[in-house]
Write a structure and sequence with these properties.
The chain is an alpha+beta fold. The chain has three domains: 206 residues, no CATH class; 161 residues, no CATH class; 148 residues. A hairpin with a 7-residue loop joins strand 14 and strand 15. The two termini are 43 Å apart. InterPro entries: GH3, GH3_C, GH3_M. This is GH3 auxin-responsive promoter. Keywords: Ligase. It comes from Macleaya cordata (Five-seeded plume-poppy).
Length: 614
């Protein structure tokens, strides 16, 4: 009998790593791999059961009654009466819950809090309701990763992982529920704090350095511990590529302080958190020889291969590099001398559905197999052009809603937007991720992550869509009116080659000759106006996190965008359907416009941003 909830006996065996011999643990790994084989073989049967269970458990909740489901649990009725929705459609119900309404609006089980997303395409954070059972369900997702990885890189229990983890402060909704990013929620939970020792996931960072909410102290102390234990490290990483590179860039800036701490066995005075101090000093002892080695390596002119130089036993980098994070692959290759980059999982605030069953594949070939026990999945066919994903309308008519297909009915090579129905009360909810079917594991499809629907620019967790960028540019060109010029064409690019990365906006001007008489300060004001017009997530990253650099405007020669069109046509684009891409993702097009730059300008200061809960 297939269980929709996580297999409790499997989870118990996998988590009981402190009390079993290695041979017994390998036996539990075999059971985990058998579980994967079973769920990929019986994917449709499990999906039908999951949907039936979700609808049975939540039969009497207000949302399902409102839409007339009347206790039905079959797919046909569900698809007929329950609409496909976005977050905006659900926002009134979520606001009721956030404001303290405890009635069963979305699900029978009490809402215990909210996971906060990195930000919708409009830039504001989403509140995703969660329950105790939902949080525990994700444990299966976590424990399956180790058996998969052990098939490809055995012996990971013989050393440590330097994996950078960070915790953000929690907020409270008006009704008193906690709202916090999912990883922060996990690191603060008993699931993390009281976890048994796992030799396959023995981190160089003490828990106190992870739980510390001061980002400087947390990163500094985690790097210090990772450097001190450098010869024990077998793998390095962070949740996302950007997070790991941020640690490397931090090391470039602060290595002298870190070397001093290792040489003396002390911790820098800027680390004031007493629990962090105590945890680090339990590990740290004076080691002048190691300090000299790190100093020598960090003093070299080139930082190429710095990861394998400082952590010589590293076998791979563990970080997500799909989607917008793929822009960081060349940088990771540079710093690591081409170490394998492993993306083990696919997840988001609403659900944790996907695992990479071939983790040593090339980063641009990563595909994820959705776990059919995690949620009920549907797929909306989408069409995109070559440069950016279209911002499709949120409302789907009746015909479009009928086009959604089930997990086992997707077609190889087709792209789809993922739609989920979860145990925590999301029904036919559009996640916004565009996936491409890359192949199949038994009966279960495997997907490449392509992009976020509607997102044009992204450096960190910021997401700027086409309409938002257009409005920002329109606001900025008002500065040019007194000079009798304006913007004829524009496009943009997320430049990850700088530290930190930043947005670049290319402008071709009307009355180009007039531009030479415009003071540089005017274009700088244009840069700032664009930034002021962007969403609060972007501005927070610019002002508070400092993980996004000042926006840059590049003025290009007259006719540059015509040459851009000519290039696209030479690559097979139709002249009758060509539209200027609002974001460049193809390296030759970036190089083309960069070769036409006449002048460039940066935002002179940070945009306005005020911390607030939304």
């Amino acid at each position: 009998m297939w269980e929709a909830a996580p297999n409790s006996s499997l989870a118990a065996e996998m988590n009981n790593t402190n009390s079993i011999e290695e041979s017994q643990q390998l036996e539990s790994f075999e059971k985990a791999l058998k579980f994967i084989e079973d769920f990929t073989t019986n994917a449709d049967k499990i999906q039908n059961r999951v949907l039936s269970e979700i609808l049975s458990i939540n039969a009497h909740v207000e949302y399902l009654q409102r839409h007339g489901l009347d206790g039905h649990t079959d797919r046909e009725t569900f698809k007929k009466v329950i609409p496909v929705i976005t977050y905006e459609d659900l926002k009134p119900d979520i606001n009721r819950i956030a404001n303290g309404d405890t009635s069963p609006i979305l699900c029978r089980e009490p809402i215990t809090g909210f996971f906060t997303s990195s930000g919708t395409s409009a830039g504001e954070r989403k509140l995703i309701p969660t329950t105790k059972e939902c949080f525990e369900r994700r444990s299966l997702f976590r424990i399956l990763r180790t058996p998969i990885m052990n098939q490809y890189v055995p012996g990971l229990n013989k050393g440590k992982i330097m994996y950078f983890m960070f915790t953000k402060p929690e907020a409270k909704t008006p009704g008193g529920l906690v709202a916090i990013p999912i990883l922060s929620r996990y690191y603060k939970s008993s699931h993390f704090k009281d976890r048994p020792y796992d030799p396959y996931n023995d981190n160089t960072s003490p828990d106190a350095t992870i739980i510390c909410e001061d980002s400087y102290q947390s990163l500094y102390s985690q790097l210090l511990c990772g450097l001190y234990q450098n010869n024990q490290v077998l793998r390095v990483g962070a949740a996302f590529a950007f997070g790991f590179l941020r640690a490397i860039w931090f090391l470039q800036k602060h290595w002298t302080l870190l070397c001093n701490d290792i040489r003396t066995g002390t911790i820098d005075a800027q680390i004031t958190d007493s629990s962090v101090q105590e945890a680090v000093l339990k590990i740290l002892k004076p080691n002048p020889k190691l300090a000299d080695f790190i100093e020598t390596e960090c003093s070299r002119d080139s930082w190429q291969g710095i990861i394998t130089r400082l952590w010589p036993n590293t076998k791979y980098i563990d970080a997500i590099v799909s989607g917008s994070m793929s822009q960081y692959i060349p940088t990771l290759d540079y710093y690591s001398n081409g170490l394998p980059i492993v993306c083990t999982r696919y997840g988001f605030s609403e659900c944790s559905p996907g695992l990479n069953l071939n983790p040593l594949c090339k980063p641009n070939e990563v595909s994820y197999t959705l776990i059919p026990t995690m949620a009920y999945f549907e797929f909306l066919p989408v069409e995109r052009n070559n440069e950016i994903n279209n911002s499709e309308p949120n409302f789907l008519n009746e015909k479009e809603q009928q086009e959604l297909v089930d997990l086992v009915d997707v077609k190889l090579g087709q792209e789809y937007e993922l739609v989920v129905t979860t145990y925590a009360g999301l029904y036919r909810y559009r996640v916004g991720d565009v996936l491409r079917v890359a192949g199949f594991k038994n009966k279960a499809p495997q997907f490449n992550f392509i992009c976020r629907r509607g997102v044009v620019l992204s450096i960190d967790t910021d997401k700027t869509d086409e309409m938002e960028l257009q409005n920002a540019v329109e606001n900025s060109v008002k500065h040019l009116i007194p000079f009798n010029t304006s913007v004829e064409e524009y496009t943009s690019y997320a430049d990850a080659s700088t530290i930190p990365g930043h947005y670049v906006v290319y402008w071709e001007l009307i009355n180009q000759e007039q531009a030479t008489s415009i003071p540089p300060s005017v274009f700088e004001d244009c840069c700032l106006t664009i930034e002021e017009s962007l969403n609060s997530v972007y501005r927070r990253l610019r002002v508070h996190e400092k993980s996004v650099g000042p926006l840059e405007i590049k003025i290009v020669e007259k006719g540059s965008f015509t040459k851009l069109m000519d290039f696209a046509i030479s690559q097979g684009a139709s002249i009758s359907q060509y539209k200027t891409p609002r974001c460049l993702k193809f390296a030759p097009t970036v190089e083309l416009l960069n070769s036409k730059v006449l002048s460039n300008y940066f935002s002179p200061k940070c945009p306005k941003w005020v911390p607030n809960y939304k």
